Amino acid sequence: MFLAMACPAAQAPAVPDVARIVGSAQFREAKAFIRGDHERFVRELIALTEIPAPPFKEERRARAYLAMLEQHGLTDVERDEEGNVMGVRRGTGGGPMLAVLAHLDTVFPEGTSVKVRREGTRLLAPGVGDDTRGLALMLSIIRAMNAATFTTRADILFVGNVGEEGEGDLRGVKYLLRKGKYKDRIKQVIAIDGGEQGSITRGGVGSKRYRVAFKGPGGHSYGAFGLVNPAYAMAAAIARFSDVQVPASPKTTFNVGVVTGGTSVNSIPSAVSMDVDMRSESCAELAKVDAAFLAIVKSAVADENRARSTREGRIEADPTVIGERPCGETPMEAPILKTTAAVVQAFGLKPSYGFSSTDSNIPMSMGIPALTIGRGPGGRSHSPDEWTDVAPAGVAQSVEVALAIVLAVAG
Amino acid sequence: MFLAMACPAAQAPAVPDVARIVGSAQFREAKAFIRGDHERFVRELIALTEIPAPPFKEERRARAYLAMLEQHGLTDVERDEEGNVMGVRRGTGGGPMLAVLAHLDTVFPEGTSVKVRREGTRLLAPGVGDDTRGLALMLSIIRAMNAATFTTRADILFVGNVGEEGEGDLRGVKYLLRKGKYKDRIKQVIAIDGGEQGSITRGGVGSKRYRVAFKGPGGHSYGAFGLVNPAYAMAAAIARFSDVQVPASPKTTFNVGVVTGGTSVNSIPSAVSMDVDMRSESCAELAKVDAAFLAIVKSAVADENRARSTREGRIEADPTVIGERPCGETPMEAPILKTTAAVVQAFGLKPSYGFSSTDSNIPMSMGIPALTIGRGPGGRSHSPDEWTDVAPAGVAQSVEVALAIVLAVAG
Fold first, then answer.
1. Which of A78, A82, B115, B164 has a CA positioned 20 to 30 A from the CA of residue B101?
2. Residue A259 is nearest to which of B253, B272, B277, comparing CB atoms?
3. B107, B234, B357, B382: which to substitute to probe chain A, counting the most A Cβ within 10 Å?
């Protein structure tokens, strides 16, 4: 008992008998329901896809999703201050609360046409897969649980969350786990946001993003020649940064994605800036490349201030964090991972384990067992020709696998 | 006669009696007028400064200046096809036409706040000095000539011209002297565009300007990490270019003035570019730094193609000439120069001779006697905190010196 309190992971159930769950009469009943629920799944997927949800502008879709959640017999259906919508499916008690997430936002800016086209069994539209299919899947799961009258030990919090993509910077899940009313209750997280069925994201690729402004006095290119030039400091920083060595494994990357600045060809710029992205599967490697980058910026600035005149002012650089996704990892031996893998295998699929940057980054970074599972067949995410396949058998499998994972993890 | 035809400079009048002009009762009358005209000068300077005139977008200011010229008793007040605005003050005949220029354009891009601030005797705003003070000065000169009923032998063409700065590439004066209706008549040029009073630009600093686009395949910052990045090639080029040694005399300079490119922080850019300016008082030194620059771009591109993967495509750089200002020089013994120096000395100032890149480059390169004179006290040209001093005594001196130069040169 004492040990269990000191190490909450020990309280987690051992890997449950997945075969028993999937083979049960109740699960067969759920499967029959899911097949009959197909048209509704497709209808809801289209309806949600066609409500634009650009980063920071998810509200319309969030309200529509909230209204859908309200029809699913959940309690405490609500929208939190960050914009996440959610509801609880009460358990019988005794299990650690499981949060199931799908994200509301897409990468596509306002004004993008989100009209869904159908080609055979494919639906095509920006965002139709990532992650609108996840949202629709979640509704089907809840309906199947209700239809087959499943009970779980754990309370399950179903969440349509904001801010997963880009500059959203995981703001929805950050709020949920750091500030929201369930922050101390959520002990396990499953995000439905992966690509292929069977893919399990067990590690959160961490990222750090900066916008670095280099500023100086500026001046006339000829008359003030010899003054410090912030473009030279930035160029030196980029050139040195490009030489930094990072490991191929754990995969670690960096990028200078945007450069901008200056007034005219014959003016020494008074300001230039660059946007930089660094990522790693390893927190230690991310911290290393981050520290190297900041040191390089500092030395490049110092060198420029030494190389040219500072009589009108010095070069200064001001690295501002514009994105930070903590890294984290759910160990291979974690019950949530072993359970999920067992379910995937029970459906005759081969689990594949990967690292990515998803909502699971946040719980993983906090030591909360978490993973991201696949939402089923699709492709071209983040591109205008994004698609998802809604052949009935494939949809049914997507719902069944996710349902079985949720049931097995919630106990 | 034959000699005079073969060498038109010999037709120029000998240095006139400057002391007589400056000491005349008529000039005293002009001085009194100029003092009384101070408020109008300041008002017009502010009004013109607050009409944005970015390169290639001088039209609004040009039309306003045209309207001002129309109130000054000139003939043939018009706007030419290039956008220059001008009017003629008829002479008594016999003198070679003198063109007096001030340029309409500033270096500042659209959207720059051009609201004028006042601090003591200083006016602060982008472009308030360069060359808006020149434009305002020209109006005061014409008014003073009219008030004191000065006549000159030569016709004087007063021009507010476009395209002096940056990418404008002297397009206004090029048109005026190579294509405009006065191209065969203009035999002397005075540009009001220098800095301090008494400074005489007698040499046209040559310049070469490039926009260099660096292009590559682009890709996802994480997924495609390891591909060549055009921002790295450009940064290496800039960093190496910043190390190039140029002589202090003949003055030779270089500048990277604008950098831009990239789609998003998490994309490897498919294209970035930079705008580069090189200048020299010496055509040979200009050719040297130009060759060094092109070699550096080439080596930086080759190094990036070696440093990272080119499996999706190689980096290529494409230096495009966006400006080329011919060098030229008005000899120390040229009458226009000796006359101007004599006027400066008559005001108790010490003439200083310099080389610069101004509208005078074009006449100088064509063998037309030309120089650029100061517009008076100010500083920080081409920077957001540009200022000009409008203490009444200083303004009066600016107008008087310029007026006396125009009178002496126009004969």
1. B115
2. B272
3. B382
List Cα–Cα distances, B376 to A312, A314, B49, in angstroms. Answer: 21, 28, 16
The CA R_g of chain B, rounded to the nearest whole Å, is 24
Best residue in A107, A201, A220, A255 to probe B by mutation, most B CBs within 10 Å? A255
In the predicted model, is pLDDT for residue A11 greater than 60? Answer: no
Would you tell me the crossing angle of helices B230-241 and B283-307 to the nearest 10 degrees? Answer: 140
Between chains, do A279 and B242 touch, taking CB under 8 Å as contact?
A: no
Q: In the structure, how many helices (H) and strands (E) does chain A have?
A: 12, 19
Instruction: Give dist(CA A398, CA A376) in Å, integer.
Output: 5
Q: How far apart are CA A129 and CA A388, in angstroms?
A: 5
Residue A101 in this model has a pLDDT that exceeds 80 = yes
Cα–Cα dist B131/B358, whole Å: 11
- pLDDT attached to residue B8: 40
CB proximity under 8 Å: B 283-322 to A: 304, 307, 322
State the DSSP code for A125.
S
Judged by CB atoms closer than 8 Å, whether chains meet at A307 and B242 is answered as yes
Tell me if A266 and B307 make a contact (CB, 8 A cut-off): no
Interacting residues of A302 by C-beta distance below 8 A, sequence separation 6+: none
**Residue A115 neighbours by CB under 8 Å, 6+ apart:** A50, A125
User: Is a pLDDT exceeding 50 seen at residue B7?
Assistant: no
Burial string for A258-269 (b: 16+ CB within 10 Å, else e) reads bbbbbbbbbbbb
Tokens of A199: 């893919």
pTM of the model: 0.72
Residue B231 CA to residue B262 CA, distance in Å, equals 8
CA-based nearest residue to A174, from A124, A103, A121: A103
